[in-house]
């Protein structure tokens, strides 16, 4: 087995013969379906985190709150 680090569209690797399988992040599965691929094993649940240092939280509080709200709005629209 060889492990190759790729950047970009991982799902293309099996289609062009570069690999037999890939490990990739899957959210809805739409890309898998579009490329005629299937998930064979669930490895791990993941989540995203917004990390802000204390100085930025004080000096850019409104901007950070807007970013948080934008994420929240996106999440509730799913």
TrEMBL record:
Highest taxon of source: Bacteria
GO molecular-function term, one example from the UniProt record: ATP phosphoribosyltransferase activity
Organism phylogeny: Bacteria, Pseudomonadati, Pseudomonadota, Betaproteobacteria, Neisseriales
Keyword annotations: Amino-acid biosynthesis, Glycosyltransferase, Histidine biosynthesis, Transferase
Organism of origin: Kingella kingae ATCC 23330
The protein's role, per its UniProt record: Catalyzes the condensation of ATP and 5-phosphoribose 1-diphosphate to form N'-(5'-phosphoribosyl)-ATP (PR-ATP). Has a crucial role in the pathway because the rate of histidine biosynthesis seems to be controlled primarily by regulation of HisG enzymatic activity.
Catalysed reaction equations from the record: 1-(5-phospho-beta-D-ribosyl)-ATP + diphosphate = 5-phospho-alpha-D-ribose 1-diphosphate + ATP
Annotated metabolic or biological route of this protein: Amino-acid biosynthesis; L-histidine biosynthesis; L-histidine from 5-phospho-alpha-D-ribose 1-diphosphate: step 1/9
Domain ATP phosphoribosyltransferase catalytic positions: 2-71
Enzyme Commission number(s): 2.4.2.17
InterPro entries given in the database record: ATP_PRibTrfase_cat, ATP_PRibTrfase_CS, ATP_PRibTrfase_HisG
PANTHER family in the record: ATP PHOSPHORIBOSYLTRANSFERASE, ATP PHOSPHORIBOSYLTRANSFERASE ATP-PRTASE
Gene Ontology annotations of biological process type: L-histidine biosynthetic process
Pfam families (UniProt xref): HisG
Record bears the keyword Transferase: yes
GO cellular component, one term: cytoplasm
Protein name according to UniProt: ATP phosphoribosyltransferase
């Amino acid at each position: 087995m060889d492990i190759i680090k790729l950047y970009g569209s991982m799902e293309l690797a099996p289609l062009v013969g570069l690999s037999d399988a890939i490990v990739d992040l899957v959210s809805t599965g739409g890309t898998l379906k579009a490329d005629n691929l299937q998930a064979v094993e669930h490895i791990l649940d993941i989540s995203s985190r917004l990390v802000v240092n204390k100085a930025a939280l004080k000096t850019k509080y409104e901007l950070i709150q807007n970013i948080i709200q934008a994420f929240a709005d996106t999440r509730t629209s799913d």
